[in-house]
Amino acid sequence: MYEVAKVVGRHCIGSLRDGNPILLNDEDFLKTALTAAAEAAGATLLQIATHKFEPQGLTGFALLAESHISFHSWPEYGFASVDCYSCGEHTNPESACRSLKDAFQAKDSSLQIFNRNFIPSRAPLPVACP
Protein backbone atom coordinates (compact mmCIF):
# COMPACT_ATOMS: atom_id res chain seq x y z
CA MET A 1 0.00 0.00 0.00
CA TYR A 2 1.27 3.47 -0.88
CA GLU A 3 1.59 6.32 1.59
CA VAL A 4 0.07 9.62 0.48
CA ALA A 5 2.38 12.62 0.67
CA LYS A 6 1.04 15.67 2.43
CA VAL A 7 2.10 19.06 1.10
CA VAL A 8 3.20 21.08 4.13
CA GLY A 9 4.49 24.11 2.25
CA ARG A 10 5.42 25.68 -1.06
CA HIS A 11 8.89 26.99 -1.86
CA CYS A 12 9.46 29.50 -4.67
CA ILE A 13 12.91 30.36 -5.93
CA GLY A 14 13.14 33.22 -8.39
CA SER A 15 15.48 35.38 -10.39
CA LEU A 16 14.68 39.00 -11.22
CA ARG A 17 16.46 40.40 -14.27
CA ASP A 18 16.77 43.91 -15.71
CA GLY A 19 15.55 45.53 -12.51
CA ASN A 20 15.98 49.15 -11.50
CA PRO A 21 19.59 49.43 -10.21
CA ILE A 22 18.78 52.38 -7.96
CA LEU A 23 15.97 50.46 -6.21
CA LEU A 24 18.11 47.32 -6.07
CA ASN A 25 20.58 49.28 -3.95
CA ASP A 26 18.11 51.12 -1.66
CA GLU A 27 17.96 49.48 1.77
CA ASP A 28 14.89 51.42 2.96
CA PHE A 29 13.06 50.51 -0.24
CA LEU A 30 13.94 46.84 0.32
CA LYS A 31 12.31 46.94 3.78
CA THR A 32 9.14 48.39 2.26
CA ALA A 33 9.20 45.83 -0.57
CA LEU A 34 9.64 42.88 1.82
CA THR A 35 6.72 44.13 3.93
CA ALA A 36 4.54 44.42 0.82
CA ALA A 37 5.61 40.95 -0.38
CA ALA A 38 4.63 39.38 2.94
CA GLU A 39 1.26 41.12 2.72
CA ALA A 40 0.79 39.98 -0.90
CA ALA A 41 1.44 36.40 0.20
CA GLY A 42 -1.14 36.63 2.98
CA ALA A 43 1.60 35.87 5.50
CA THR A 44 2.21 37.13 9.03
CA LEU A 45 5.32 39.32 9.13
CA LEU A 46 7.33 38.90 12.35
CA GLN A 47 10.60 40.71 11.62
CA ILE A 48 12.75 42.17 8.83
CA ALA A 49 16.56 42.22 8.74
CA THR A 50 18.59 43.86 5.96
CA HIS A 51 22.20 44.69 5.13
CA LYS A 52 23.69 47.04 2.53
CA PHE A 53 27.03 46.03 1.05
CA GLU A 54 29.78 48.39 -0.12
CA PRO A 55 30.13 49.48 -2.79
CA GLN A 56 26.69 48.10 -3.69
CA GLY A 57 24.18 45.30 -3.16
CA LEU A 58 21.61 44.32 -0.60
CA THR A 59 20.54 41.29 1.31
CA GLY A 60 17.29 41.07 3.23
CA PHE A 61 15.21 38.60 5.12
CA ALA A 62 11.58 38.68 6.21
CA LEU A 63 10.84 36.27 9.03
CA LEU A 64 7.25 35.08 8.70
CA ALA A 65 5.12 33.09 11.11
CA GLU A 66 4.69 30.77 8.11
CA SER A 67 8.43 30.72 7.18
CA HIS A 68 10.49 33.34 5.24
CA ILE A 69 11.22 35.58 2.27
CA SER A 70 14.85 36.27 1.35
CA PHE A 71 16.30 38.72 -1.16
CA HIS A 72 19.81 39.32 -2.55
CA SER A 73 20.67 41.99 -5.14
CA TRP A 74 23.44 42.80 -7.58
CA PRO A 75 22.49 46.32 -8.76
CA GLU A 76 25.41 46.48 -11.19
CA TYR A 77 23.74 43.65 -13.14
CA GLY A 78 20.13 44.70 -12.53
CA PHE A 79 19.71 41.28 -10.88
CA ALA A 80 18.19 39.92 -7.70
CA SER A 81 17.49 36.44 -6.38
CA VAL A 82 14.45 35.77 -4.21
CA ASP A 83 13.42 32.84 -2.07
CA CYS A 84 9.90 32.62 -0.67
CA TYR A 85 8.80 29.69 1.46
CA SER A 86 5.51 29.39 3.28
CA CYS A 87 3.60 26.76 5.15
CA GLY A 88 -0.15 26.57 5.35
CA GLU A 89 -2.90 26.75 2.79
CA HIS A 90 -3.73 30.41 3.51
CA THR A 91 -0.45 31.76 2.07
CA ASN A 92 0.75 32.20 -1.49
CA PRO A 93 4.54 32.50 -1.91
CA GLU A 94 4.17 33.01 -5.66
CA SER A 95 2.39 36.30 -4.92
CA ALA A 96 5.34 37.41 -2.76
CA CYS A 97 7.76 36.78 -5.64
CA ARG A 98 5.51 38.66 -8.10
CA SER A 99 5.30 41.55 -5.65
CA LEU A 100 9.11 41.77 -5.47
CA LYS A 101 9.38 41.60 -9.27
CA ASP A 102 6.97 44.51 -9.62
CA ALA A 103 8.54 46.53 -6.79
CA PHE A 104 12.04 46.36 -8.27
CA GLN A 105 10.71 46.97 -11.80
CA ALA A 106 12.26 43.78 -13.17
CA LYS A 107 11.60 43.43 -16.88
CA ASP A 108 12.13 39.66 -16.81
CA SER A 109 11.97 36.93 -14.21
CA SER A 110 11.93 33.19 -13.73
CA LEU A 111 10.32 31.23 -10.93
CA GLN A 112 10.61 27.63 -9.80
CA ILE A 113 7.95 26.30 -7.43
CA PHE A 114 8.46 23.27 -5.24
CA ASN A 115 5.97 21.50 -3.01
CA ARG A 116 7.50 20.58 0.33
CA ASN A 117 6.09 17.14 1.07
CA PHE A 118 5.87 15.03 4.16
CA ILE A 119 5.17 11.32 3.89
CA PRO A 120 3.68 10.00 7.12
CA SER A 121 5.48 7.05 8.62
CA ARG A 122 4.15 4.41 10.93
CA ALA A 123 7.44 4.46 12.82
CA PRO A 124 7.71 7.00 15.65
CA LEU A 125 10.04 9.93 15.12
CA PRO A 126 13.19 10.01 17.25
CA VAL A 127 13.04 12.26 20.29
CA ALA A 128 16.44 13.84 19.66
CA CYS A 129 19.15 13.67 17.04
CA PRO A 130 22.47 12.12 18.07
Key features of this structure:
130 residues, 2 helices, alpha+beta, 20% helix, six-stranded antiparallel β-sheet
Quote the average pLDDT: 90
Helix content: 10-25%
The percentage of residues in β strands lies in: 35-45%
CATH topology: S-adenosylmethionine decarboxylase
Count the beta strands.
Answer: 6
Please summarize what this structure is.
α1 runs antiparallel to α2 (93-103). Helix content is 20%, strand content 42%. The two termini are 31 Å apart.
Element layout with pairings:
Elements: E1 6-17, H1 27-41, E2 45-52, E3 58-64, E4 67-74, E5 79-87, H2 93-103, E6 108-118
Antiparallel strand pairs: 1-5, 1-6, 2-3, 3-4, 4-5
Helix pairs in contact: 1-2
Tell me what you see in this structure.
The protein is of the alpha+beta class and 130 residues long. It contains 2 helices and 6 strands. The chain has a single domain, classed as S-adenosylmethionine decarboxylase.
